[in-house]
Design a protein that fits this description.
Layout lengths: L9 H10 L4 H11 L14 H10 L6 E7 L6 E6 L5 E9 L2 E5 L3 E3 L14 E4 L2 H15 L3 E6 L9 H12 L11 E5 L3 H10 L4 E5 L5 H7 L2 H4 L2 H15 L4 E6 L7 H10 L6 E6 L13 H13 L3 E4 L13 H10 L1
Parallel strand pairs: 4-7, 7-8, 8-9, 9-10, 10-11, 11-12
Antiparallel strand pairs: 1-2, 2-3, 3-4, 5-6
Helix pairs in contact: 1-2, 4-5, 6-9, 10-11
This protein binds S-adenosyl-L-homocysteine.
S-adenosyl-L-homocysteine binds next to strand 8 and strand 10.
Length: 344
């Protein structure tokens, strides 16, 4: 068991405080403070000094440091590069939507999935994030920006379902009424398609939104750009999506990064339509963000519009994602990548 107090649920903290001979209300006070994003026990002003000292000695509070902070002059998007306790860096993005401030968090340092278009995976997987390291990204983004966070997307660096248990615990923590109390309905989790984990997630029957990074209508195209497709081909993936939909009644979202000449032809859109029957699918078309190391290019506006029209005419809702923070390297892994290169 992780010995960071911030990784503990309130019932676990209550049990620990009981063992320490402390009353339950103290555990609640500490839980509330930790989930406000304090950096030291000294800030817990309603706690006796002796307890603060004991806790500080036994359970040091870890908090990430800001290495870079970039704010978009266009849309107010703020991107953070954090340094974690062990020196590794991850990114978090705060996006301001009309429905609320949304934080996009990383779930791993690097990524093992190897998608051809993604900057996060270039150096491979370094390690998985602990639950409190995911929580910290939300807490300290809120503290630093002074903007209240109401929505979370697990779409930063890493594959959330490759870090399943820690992600589940993070969701429990961030959803707790005594903590940030962020509704599961305001949380989206995106996966490249780890089928056994999609089934495991379905069993939890969470109210979160599940997004699938599809990026291709068939195995031929997916195999070229997403190695995960060799383990879980598109039919297997979409069958899991169907099971998920049946188990949770939650509408699925599919992400589709539009790549010039790779997956953006009319026939690709037609084929995609055929795949979506009975899935309650919603498609998010994302013009590819160009990654320096990659030869892949974004589709033209016209190609994106044509693709969208074919899907819409076929009865599948398709939206083109508004790109935020284009002036601040705001997509997946770009800032960490740049920083790592500078350090070398
Ligand atoms: N590993 C998870 C979540 C992280 S990525 C997943 O694969 O879903 C969040 C989304 O951004 C995914 O749909 C991913 O495929 C997409 N993405 C990654 N690099 C991109 C790029 N250069 N341009 C557009 N979308 C990208």
């Amino acid at each position: 068991m992780n010995e960071h107090l911030k990784a503990k649920t309130l019932p676990e903290l209550l049990a620990l405080f009981k063992e320490m001979g402390q009353p339950g209300f103290r555990a609640k006070q500490v839980y509330t403070w930790l989930h406000k994003g304090v950096r030291s026990y000294e800030e817990m002003t309603n706690l006796p000094k002796s307890l603060r000292d004991t806790l500080a000695e036994r359970y040091p509070i870890q908090a990430p440091e800001v290495v870079r902070r970039q704010e978009s002059a266009r849309d107010g998007t703020i991107k953070y590069l954090w340094r974690l306790a062990d020196g590794n860096c991850v990114e978090t993005v705060l996006m301001r939507y009309h429905y609320g401030n949304t934080v996009c968090i990383s779930t791993e340092v690097g990524c093992a999935m190897g998608c051809a278009f993604c900057a996060s995976t270039i150096g491979g997987l370094v390690r998985r994030l602990e639950p409190q390291e995911m929580l910290d990204q939300v807490l300290f983004t809120q503290v630093d920006s002074g903007l209240p966070v109401s929505h979370i997307v697990l779409m930063g660096i890493g594959e959330p379902l490759d870090n399943f248990d820690n992600v589940m615990r993070f969701l429990e923590l961030v959803n707790s009424p005594e903590g940030m109390n962020i509704s599961m309905r305001h949380i989206s989790l995106s996966t490249c398609g780890l089928v056994p984990k999609i089934d495991e997630l379905a069993k939890r029957k969470l109210q979160i939104s599940l997004a699938i990074s599809l990026h291709g209508p068939n195995d031929e195209i997916r195999n070229k750009i997403m190695p995960v497709n060799r383990a879980y081909p598109i039919d297997v993936l979409l069958a899991a999506c169907r099971r998920y939909y049946e188990a949770t009644s939650r509408r699925l979202h599919f992400e589709y990064a539009m790549i010039d000449g790779v997956n953006d032809r009319e026939q690709d859109a037609q084929e995609l339509l055929g795949r979506f029957k009975g899935l309650g699918a919603h498609v998010n078309l994302i013009p590819l963000n160009h990654v320096e190391e990659s030869p892949l290019k974004p589709s033209s506006r016209a190609a994106v519009a044509r693709f969208q029209k074919i899907l819409e005419d076929g009865g599948v809702t398709a939206t083109v994602r508004r790109t935020l923070g284009g002036d601040i390297d705001a997509s997946c892994g770009q800032l960490r990548r740049k920083y790592t290169k500078e350090q070398q």
